[in-house]
Amino acid sequence: MSKKLIALSVLVMFVLAFGLAGCGQQSAKPAEQPKPKVLKVGSDTAFAPFEFQDEKSKEYVGFDMDLIKAIGKQMGMEVQVQSMNFDGLIPALEAGNIDATISAMTITDERAKKVNFTKPYYKSGLSMVVKADNNTLKTFKDLEGKRIAVQIGTTGADEAKKIKDAKIREFNTAPEAFMELKAGGVDAVVNDLPVNEYYIAQAGGKDAKTVGEPLTSEDYGIATSKKSTELADKINKALEELKKNGEYEKIYVKWFGKKPPQ
Ligand code: ARG
C-alpha cells in the first residue's frame, strides 16, 4: 500500500469513529436542566469580616457573602460575586454591569439619589484606630491637625474630612489604610467599627487599637439599580424570610459571635 493510501484510510477511520461517537453521544444526552438565573453582585472584597478572600480556597467569604448567597438561594438565583473598588460600585450599578452590590455599604441620602437601597441589614458606625502604644489620641477631637488614613469614597472619608486641619490620606482599600498606620505614615485610621475590631483582633492587638466612642451610627443596605424597584423588593422579601426562619441570625452569630441586636 502506498503511503498516500495508508494516510487516507487512517483519515477515513478517524472520521467514522468520531462521527459514530458523536451520534452515540447525541442520543444519550439527558434532557437539559433549566439553568438558575444569575444575580451579578459587586463588592469590594477587602473588608473583613464582611467580604474578603479566603487565602486557601480563594473564595470570597464573610458576613455579606453568606447573606447574599442565602438571599440568592431564597430567590432561586445563582449569585456571582464580582470584586471591584468600592468607589466603582455605584457607577457599575448605574452602568448596568452588575445587578446589586453588597459591600458593607452605608445607606446615605447622597447614595440613595443614585441607587435603590434595601431595608437595613446591619447596624454599624465609624471608629478610629491608632497605634497600640499611642496614648495621646483618645477621641475624635484629638485628631484635629493630625494625619488620617481612610478608604476612598467611604463614609469614613467624609467624616474625616470634617475634622479641623486634618491631613487626609485616601487609599483604594481599607487594608492599605491600616498598613499606612502600621508604617507610621499616618496617626489614625477612620473606618467602620466592626472592620476595625476584626483587624485588631486578627493582628492579636499588637499593632493597633480602637479608642473613643463610635463617631456615627450607620445602617448597611444592599443597593440595586434605580431603573427598577423589583429586585430591591425581592431582596427585601428574601431578607425578611431569612430573619424569620433563623438563617440571618445563624450567619450573624457565625461572624460576630453574638446575636444580632433586636
Ligand atoms: N460603610 C462605609 C461606607 O459605606 C464603608 C464601606 C466600605 N466597604 C468595603 N467593602 N470596602 O462608606
TrEMBL record:
Main location: other
Domain Ionotropic glutamate receptor C-terminal: 38-258
Database matches in Pfam families: SBP_bac_3 (PF00497)
Gene Ontology molecular functions: ligand-gated monoatomic ion channel activity
Gene3D superfamilies according to UniProt: Periplasmic binding protein-like II
Record's keyword terms, sorted: Signal
Signal listed as a keyword: yes
Keyword Signal: yes
InterPro entries hit by this protein: Iontro_rcpt_C (IPR001320), SBP_3_CS (IPR018313), Solute-binding_3/MltF_N (IPR001638)
Signal sequence coordinates: 1-28
Domain Solute-binding protein family 3/N-terminal: start-end pairs: 38-259
Family: Belongs to the bacterial solute-binding protein 3 family.
Record-given protein name: Polar amino acid transport system substrate-binding protein
